[in-house]
Amino acid sequence: MESNRARIAIDAMGGDHAPDEVVAGALLAQAELDVEVLLVGNPELIEASVKENGGSLDSVKIVPAEGMIEMTEEPLSALRKKRKASINVAMNLVKKGEADAVVSAGHSGAAMAAALLRLGRLPGIDRPAIGAVFPTLIAGKQVLVLDVGANVDCRPNFLDQFATMGSIYSQDVLGTESPKVGLLNIGEEPNKGNEASVQTYPLLERNPNINFVGNAEGRDVLSGQFDVIVCDGFTGNVLLKFAEAVGGVALQIIKEELPRGVRGKVGAVVLKPNLLNIKQRMDHAEHGGGLLLGVAGVCIISHGSSKAPSIFNAIRLAKEAADHQVSDRIRSCYQQTVAVANGE
Q: Entry's Pfam families (predicted)?
């Protein structure tokens, strides 16, 4: 295997459909994305899944781990008790420089806690945030929303840091020039919203690292007017899951209604390429998961229900973040900000 390829540690035991769907997505990613996947977990189960999915054991690297963090377990105590659990082992691979990124569809709280314990926060970052990419009304344009679940309650300075990290990610990975940053709120005016929103607004206005364009109301999230939207993790998680549900409902309605009648059946055949494009824009599986920004390494937290296509896209996301050295860019940005503040 070529040493210049991104090495992605996969928590093969995490998720509702692990290890089979996780392994299937990892094998596809290794074949199509030119990455090296390190499958972490129970060797016997992983080997069986590799064979089941038509893979060769000679083409993959399996890293043994003992057990996993169950969804019912409290993250911190479980991580300390199960030091050889798959998510702990995967994070240690990044910490030791043996992997460039981690992908996990397991316990999201455990993944975040493991990243903090094993990798640590970047200097200048008080709280990491999970960023999720949403489709917009403008074809080819996406909006990054953060936080979508890492921090239920947020102080104004947390949101200010989210804006900087999100802007760097949008610029470097999504290719957005001078990303437009918005603060999720119930109105456009600077004095609208709760106390945290009102206090955050002037911080974002003064932030030299971002292009802050004002408040974003709920109807603006998918409009394409913003490239990055910041909010607390409680609001962001509700927004994320609501958007996923709406996307699923819309796709189901299209499937049910379009083929009705002779005209509908003919139209469905003619419009098949367009329907595939609609699915790609609306289906959350196409985005793979969220990037945990603010830790000293690349960590992708995928949906617990992820199947092979979603795992594939999560690995693609991890590769892009690793290739663009997002964590290093955030670190450099804060070092420069501190230097300017100190008059250096």
A: FA_synthesis
